[in-house]
Amino acid sequence: xTSRYAALSREELAxxxxxxxxxxxxxxxxxxxxxxxxxxxxxxxxIAIEEWAASSPLYTKRMQRxxxxxxxxxxxxxxxxxxxxxxxxxxxxxxxxxxxxxxxEFHLDHCGALLDVEPMGEDYVHGMCHDIEDPTFDATxxxxxxxxxxxxxxxxxxxPAGRSPHCAWTVIIDESYPEVAFIPAMDIVGASxxxxxxxxxIDPNDEGMADYSGALxxxxxxxxxxxxxxxxxxxxxCLQMHLLVxxxxxxxxxxxxxxxxxxxxxxxxxxxxxxGVAAERIHAALKLPGxxxxxxxxxxxxxxxxxxxxxxxxxxxDFVHVRRSPAYEDGSWISLVSPVxxxxxxxxxxxxxxxxxxxxxxxESDWTVRVVQTDTPAxxxxxxxxxxxxxxxxxxxxxxxxxPLTVV
Length: 408
Hints:
Elements: H1 10-39, H2 41-66, H3 74-82, E1 92-100, E2 103-111, H4 112-117, H5 122-142, E3 148-154, E4 167-173, H6 185-190, H7 193-196, H8 227-256, H9 260-285, H10 291-301, E5 313-315, E6 320-322, H11 326-330, H12 343-352, E7 356-363, E8 366-373, H13 382-387
Antiparallel strand pairs: 1-2, 2-4, 3-4, 5-6, 6-8, 7-8
């Protein structure tokens, strides 16, 4: 099946890919507030740890294979972070230093996640920068080399206040280190249809870079990749989001127990919030038209409905038709949307124009959405407002030079 991103130009794809990486990071800004409301801050931290630890090693391995940079060294780890929804470019401004294949460092000149939580107090900062980061950085490295240790040089809470860089870490691979422990939930997420989804191979003869097998660079120049490679990267980033959401579901379900209504409520609120913010950013970044036509185009490109090999959708000039697909079998985002649960779709079309409404008809797993114009603007959904608490919702990317990071 042809990717729905294939119709975009190479330039449009180079704009879209960092947007998708940022959208993936903002999923947590949307979901964790509702976890705090349900179970408190400590359980929210544990959910975040379990969510990232059980998904990031899996999707990191997928991207390594897709872009032909599989390895066992520090350079492989750093390339993976550059293409990870947990570390979107510029918003999470990782700066890398490579001493040799087994020794490196990184620091963050800007950490959007830190700036989001600092106003909430030192406990929240400590929770994110200590409780969450320690196990999840090691879990991310698990995809490359289980003898890796990622350890802080300094990290928040910032002393003195306003300290820059926001944090700094060493990354060392040493055979004497104990192996990073395997994460059992990875087996469950790894058995999903999302993880085994096969995407279109990259055409090695397409103009531009077909992979990331060359030198590690300071800032990935997405415009240097070929059209074919960018389509594959965009689809892989959408799968990263689905794998993260499947892992989030496991963690939420463990707390909700038999209360399926609570579980579904939290998962749906997470989706509504990110659906609206993602739609707004995609619409603006690609300079898509307004009105009904623009809303249908945003739906077609939205991570809720991508990649095409995972979420089955027929796109028509007048409507979008969603059919049962592997994403339904996994219980991913799309399983939360139906003619009687349409708020994620309303959030998407309202992000294009608050006068637009989504009219959804059909069955629970086979439905059609049409977009209609109304006279009354919709109020912003509260879940979208919660997600916009993050500075990432209004983040503006800048042009940067892509410089090779040579070993000193």
